[in-house]
What we know:
Keywords: Mitochondrion, Ribonucleoprotein, Ribosomal protein, Transit peptide. The chain is of the alpha+beta class. It has helices at about 5-10, 95-105, 110-145, and strands at about 35, 40-45, 80-85, 85-90. The strands form two sheets. Strands 1-2 form a two-stranded antiparallel ribbon. It is extended and about 100 Å long. The two termini are about 55 Å apart. The model has no long low-confidence stretch (mean pLDDT about 80).
Amino acid sequence: MFKPTRSLNARLRLTTKQVGGGYYKGNRTGNVGYFGRKKGTYFIDWRKVRTYVVPEGLDTFKLTPFVTKRMEPTRTHYTQTIMIGDREVEVPRGMNGKDYLDDWYANNELESDEMERIRREEVSGQEDTAMSDGQHAEQTTSEQKTNPGTHMDNS
Length: 155
């Protein structure tokens, strides 16, 4: 429908979807060698290969990046009760938003107490305004009962 102008198009970069299969960005690390004259030969330039310096004393270091395969899966704390036939069965379930909020309230006592105090103030403020609105409504109805000619009639 709308296309960029010719001058803007000259400044926009090409994307992989605008060009055929010859546009490959890779991870932009550059090449580590060069192609030889014969077909299918590639020579690695070892000056361009990234090497990592091993820290001193690594051969005597005791900790290793080892993960055992004999560990039992960790049980979840969250379960739900479902009915299978005529009996109830507890099955594991994932953590949901309510579980997260309960955990947050348990671990952040000061912040959650402050939020609860603010919430109570808001509720009491809303009740006060609702009560004043209700009192105003009661006053107008009592005035209408005592002075029936004072209310407005839309007919």
